[in-house]
Amino acid sequence: MNKFLLILFFVMFVNTNLLSEDNFEKGLRIAKESYESTRGYVDSESDQLMILVDPKGNEVIREISGKTLENDDPNDGDKSIIFFNKPKDVEGTVMLSHTHVNDDDDQWLYLPALGRVKRISSSNKSGSFMGSEIAFEDFSGNDYRKYEWEFIGEEEYEGEICYKLVSIPKYKNSGYTKRIGFTDKLLRPRMIEYFDRKGELLKTLYFEDYQLYNDKIWNADTFRVVNHQNKNKTIYKWINRELNVGINKKDFEKSSLLRLAD
Amino acid sequence: MIYIKILNFALIVTFIFSFNVNALEYKLYGLVQPEFSIFTNGDGKHHQSKNNYSLFTKGNFISYLDERDAKITISAIARYDEKDSERRYIDFQKLKYEQYFENYTFKIGNEIIFWGVNESFNIIDIINQSNLAEDMTGTKKLGQPLLSLAYDNNYGTIDLYLMPYFIERKFPSKNGRPRLALEVDQNSITYESSSKEQKLDFALRYSMVYDDYDIGIAHFHGNNRAPQLNINPSTLKFNPHYTTLSQTSLDIQATKGAWLYKLEALSAKDGNERHLGVAGGFEYTFYGIRDSQSDLGLVIEYSFDDRNSYPFNNDSVAALRWTKNDINSTSLLAGMFIDMRGNSNRFIAEYEQRINNNVKLFIDATFNGSIDSQDFTYAFEEDSVFSIKLARYF
Predict the structure, then answer these.
(1) Long-range contact list for B152-157, CB < 8 A, 24+ apart?
(2) Which of A102, A113, A244, B152 is the most exposed place for a label (fewest CB within 10 A)?
(3) Residue A126 to residues A43, A87, A194, B380, B389, Cα–Cα distance (Å)
(4) How far apart (Å, rounded) are the C-alpha atoms in residues A73 and A155?
């Protein structure tokens, strides 16, 4: 009987705790759970295709391939290598990034024409990636630690009831003042609206082609971005993505850049 | 030089065919680039021509073997030049075989190795010979035959290089523009070392990344890449003399947000004389200027050397780099070189933009301002030039 009372008390206590969760705590909890559901991928390899569309409908193709490594240190960011293939004038260029959560990343660029590895400034996470409507900071936009969160309700998005979350970047060099997005009940971000430094609506990112990888991790294999100010569009596709492939960790160090460059 | 190239090539061809060629995983790419130059001061000091056509091409072949534990790289450049016979050449920039072990990398063949951090004054970069026929500033290099072993661990990387054969510096010919005041007589080369071009040069470099700092310490011993140019009174040509150089160098870059701080320093014994060189500066980038996607970078560098004869012994450069970050990767670099001892200055501008996925346009301009008659660049005072290059990539 005593045991029963104890359990009852415990359940009530926990419930009260949940009930007393305010919208900031709830927003943070959903964002954290969403982020954590994408973790444990260990490493990944993929080809990436980008289609840049201007307001007249002209299309330009970009092709890269990439590797990422999950950081053992949960307080630090992941590491990535990008190999540029198209446009042809950047073929052979390689970029290595050691990302950090709320600080500048460490980035090195291998420039084949000069046979030179350059450490580059990375305080421009808000800059365009290869002339697209996607910024560097958008690739890690699901990292809950980078934002202050607020849950502002549930709304239907594409026929599903989703959490509506407001996120405000903590990083001082972010290109955004605010994001408003929908995350579905499987904790997958479905759409995010970005507001620029002046507070005006800049662009919308749609997460499409969700695939369940290794029976546990949902990844959107297409990012579709519509810029509301310059009317450009970017379609970013991940092809042949594989998780947990067993990439040598040393590949993600500066000293390996010359070896990996081709 | 030729026989080393043939030897290299034979080595690699043998290697490729010792494997099942059909199973090769390879990559092939390159470019063809017609170029046209117009000189704005007429025919120039040495009665060269006021315009010039040239064709540059580059091909890369990369193949992996042994489940990516080995790699073969062939990277060749070639140029045909209308006027300058020294600008008609083929060079194997890379023609190498690499084998990777857990912490070691072994490499044999021609290679391009860059040391340093500066944008302009790359004073410590010593492994490769400069091709001055290609570019008077010395930034264009020739492939160096070498053997190398690299060892890396968590504390950094140690690279050891053995260079069994010396590559002579290339200079523009009599009809080249720009060119030196006198022709360089490549048939009258002398060396301090009795082994001459067969001297076994060696180099050692330790490099590491510590937080925001990229640091390199290196030592080189061998034939100096830069020859002394002595006037031969009977031919009135320059006779190159290659001294033996021992150079110890340090290079550091600190990356602090939008600021990059750079320093290269060296102490060297060249022949019997010791000299000291220090060059460095900073780079700062303004991102998203005027609420656009454009960036504007400012580069300021200074070079000091305690030799009076060294061309960059008290020189500075200030440049602005504008990158539009658009679909065409449009960018413009404009800068000014100032010799602070004399009164020489020179302006450069480099514009580039992609035309489509496979074609890129480059427009370069060099304007010589006042040039001191004591400065070695006085020989190309009248060589202000516009160049248009159109690269077609394949």
Answers:
(1) B152/A250, B152/A253, B152/A255, B152/B103, B152/B105, B153/B103, B155/B208, B156/A255, B156/B206, B156/B207, B156/B208, B156/B209, B157/A255, B157/B206, B157/B207, B157/B208
(2) A113
(3) 25, 22, 12, 44, 32
(4) 36
- The CA distances from residue B315 to A124, B179, B231, B297, B318, in Å, are 31, 21, 26, 20, 10
B391 and A87 in contact by Cβ < 8 A?
A: no
Amino acid occupying residue A210: Y
B325 touches chain A (CB under 8 A): yes
In the predicted model, what is the mean pLDDT of chain A? 91
Instruction: Using an 8 Å CB-CB cutoff, list chain A residues near B205.
Output: none
Tell whether the model's pLDDT for residue A17 goes beyond 70: no
Q: Which residues of chain A are within 8 Å of residue B288 when distances are taken between CB atoms?
A: 124, 126-127, 175
**Within a domain: residue A5?**
no
Q: Give me the amino acid identity at A190.
A: R
A-contacting residues in B 124-183 (Cβ below 8 Å):
141, 150, 152, 156-157
- Domain extent, residue A226, equals 26-260
Peptide bond into A55 cis (omega under 30): no
Size of interface A-B (CB pairs under 8 A): 101
Considering only the beta carbons, identify the residue of A126, A128, A262 that sits closest to B27: A262
In a domain, A7, yes or no: no
Q: What is the pTM assigned to this prediction?
A: 0.90
Q: Let me know if A102 is exposed, middle or buried by CB neighbors in 10 A (0-12, 13-18, 19+).
A: middle
Q: Please indicate whether, in this complex, the C-beta atoms of A124 and B288 are within 8 angstroms of each other.
A: yes
Distance CA A69, CA B32 (A): 37
3-state secondary structure B247-277: EEEEEEEEEECCEEEEEEEEEEEECCEEEEE
**Over the range B184-217, which residues count as b (16 or more CB within 10 Å of their CB) and which as e?**
bbbeebebbbeeebebebbbebebbbeebebbbe
C-beta of residue B327 within 8 angstroms of C-beta of residue A54: yes
Domains and CATH numbers, chain B: 97-393 (2.40.160)
Contact A89 B391 (CB under 8 A): yes
Six token digits for residue A89: 């004038």
User: Please, what are the averages of pLDDT over each run of 10 residues along chain B (394 residues)?
Assistant: 58 58 78 97 87 96 90 96 95 96 95 96 96 92 97 94 97 92 94 95 97 97 96 95 98 96 98 95 91 91 91 91 92 94 89 95 94 80 94 97
Nearest neighbour of B329 by CB, restricted to A116, A131, A173: A131
Is residue A121 in a domain?
A: yes
Give me the percent of chain A exceeding a pLDDT of 70.
Answer: 93
DSSP H or E segment with residue B40: none
Instruction: With H, G, I as helix, E, B as strand and everything else as coil, classify residue B318.
Output: strand
B245 - beta bridge partners? B222, B270
| Triad A214, A218, A223: Cα angle to 5° | 130
- The reported pLDDT for the residue numbered B208 is 97
Give the total number of structural domains in chain A: 1
Query: For A119, left (φ over 0), alpha (ψ -120 to 50), or beta?
Result: beta
- Whether B214 and A61 lie within 8 Å, measured CB to CB: no
Do the Cβ atoms of A33 and A187 come closer than 8 Å? Answer: yes
The C-alpha atoms of residue B179 and residue B18 are separated, in whole angstroms, by 46
CATH number at residue A206: 2.50.20.10
| Nearest one of B93, B69, B90 to B81, comparing CA atoms | B90
Determine contact, residues B28/A262, Cβ cutoff 8 Å.
no
Q: In what order do the strands lie in the sheet with B190-191?
A: B190-191, B237-242, B228-232
